[in-house]
Design brief:
Radius of gyration: 25 Å
Helix content: 25-40%
Shape: flat
Strand content: 25-35%
Order of helices and strands: HEEEHEEHHEHEHHEEEHEEEEHHHHE
Number of helices: 12
């Protein structure tokens, strides 16, 4: 396109904007959703939104609240929230979605597809599930923050590559949903009662409502939209050890003489290799470890600068890491969930021959786990 044509088009577009203007909604008239919880109750959705409301006054203050609406459709539920609040609901700033157990059973993909396509919810929003209803979790009062959605997502953001916390976005969930087996994982949020923070003067935080912290150490394992089982902390760590990158993590080891040894994962990751003919996968895990603390059975704290792990302690630590990977692999394989996407790995190794002989590949597959530790 010639330059004069481009400038003409630009000038016309600019004139139209000046003539007709652009419709805008003041921020004080927007219901800014920062956390969304979705449940199913019989033939209706229960949609709960934690809304951040900005004041139009000079103080520029903000407040938040949770609004819940039951409606047969998601679009209708969002419209009802707009009616109740008298504001335009916007999900563009929503970074946390909680899917209740009732939604995971047949409605998760449909829910996420609608919210992403029609409600402008970012596919990078964090996705979690809950043991109880999602509404109850979103409505729980955080012990150290007024806004539950912000408080809940903080450990996911800061510890998202920690070795015992699963980090999942809507985009990642939908990608795994489309794999051959459809095995998926979601962190399970569990509110845990906590003492409220101390106020000035040494008194405990007041208020009649109980305060909570949120445990994220368990993981729901799914096949498509069918819940399979909940992985414990050790199995969750096994899932993360097999990821390409781990940025942080904590390890505990009992020493040869009964010492309590605490270690820290500074960085690490896993490389995978597949042999389709032998139906064997090999995971090579490499971790950089920092020795943090050693306490003898008598309670004596030993200076770590002068200590190192013995050969037997090093071997036990490697075995502990490998066992956690094998534990979640064996449990998931028995349940029919290909949590490590072995099908895709075998297919990449032999795209022509493997599909014809895949059969019940998951029950026949073998997993070898090698662990290398480097101490700093």
């Amino acid at each position: 396109m010639k330059r004069w044509v481009k400038w003409t088009v630009f000038a016309v577009a600019f004139a139209v904007i000046l003539l007709f203007g652009i419709e805008s909604v003041p921020i004080s008239d927007r219901a800014i959703v920062i956390g969304l919880a979705v449940d199913r109750e019989e033939d209706a959705y229960m949609v709960s939104a934690q809304i951040l409301m900005a004041s139009s006054g000079q103080d520029q203050s903000t407040s938040s609240g949770v609004v819940s609406v039951e409606y047969p459709t998601l679009s209708g539920a969002l419209n009802e929230i707009s009616k109740q609040t008298g504001m335009l609901v916007t999900l563009s700033h929503c970074n946390l979605v909680i899917l209740g157990p009732s939604v995971l059973d047949g409605y998760a993909q449909k829910t996420l597809d609608y919210l992403s396509r029609n409600a402008y919810l970012s596919e990078n929003a964090l996705l979690v599930t809950s043991e109880s209803s999602a509404r109850e979790v979103l409505s729980a009062k955080g012990a150290y923050a007024q806004t539950t959605a912000f408080f809940m997502q903080q450990p996911l953001i800061s510890d998202g590559q920690y070795q015992d916390i699963v980090y999942r976005t809507i985009k990642e969930y939908r990608a795994d949903f489309s794999t051959f087996n459809g095995a998926n994982r979601l962190p399970v949020v569990r509110p845990v009662p906590a003492e409220p923070p101390m106020e000035s003067g040494g008194q405990g935080g007041g208020g009649e409502d109980p305060a909570y912290v949120f445990d994220l150490s368990q993981t729901a394992i799914l096949i498509k939209e069918q819940y399979v089982f909940t992985a414990n902390r050790t199995e969750t760590a096994g899932l993360n050890y097999a990821e390409p990158e781990i940025q942080r993590g904590g390890l505990y080891l009992e020493g040869d003489a009964g010492e309590a040894i605490e270690l820290y994962i500074a960085k690490g990751g896993c490389k995978r290799e597949y042999d389709a003919d032998a139906l064997t996968a090999t995971f090579d895990i490499s971790l950089r470890i920092i020795l943090k603390e050693i306490i003898s059975p008598e309670g004596e704290v030993r200076p770590v600068a002068t200590c190192s792990l013995s050969a037997s302690e090093d071997q036990r630590l490697k075995q502990t890491i490998a066992d956690s990977v094998l534990q979640i692999f064996n449990r998931a394989a028995e349940a029919g969930a290909d949590v490590f996407e072995l099908y895709e790995g075998f297919y990449a190794d032999d795209p022509k021959g493997f599909p014809a002989k895949a059969g019940d590949y998951l029950t026949k597959a073998r997993l070898n786990v090698n662990v290398e530790l480097k101490y700093e």
